Amino acid sequence: MVVNEHTIVLGRLGPKELASAPDSIVEAVMRPGPATVRADEPLDELLDRMAKHRIKAMIVTTPEGRLLGVIRRQEEGSNRSAASQSDGGR
Is 6 exposed, middle or buried (0-12, 13-18, 19+ CB in 10 A)? Predict the structure, then answer.
């Protein structure tokens, strides 16, 4: 995840981007404007949508784009379980 000094989400870095150009600056290789959801979205609906589109993780932000955490869908046969990671209380 790429955030600015105000924890506003700017982009995403995955293994492909990190391996593609190790000497590049982050801005040059990140995927800008990642999809996000709001914290008040119903969890069941979000997990169903993530399973339908085979999305493993979704970024949770405020309406202003400030990072709150990440929801990860567990793939052990159930799309009803999820684990969240916070951003450390920022």
Answer: exposed
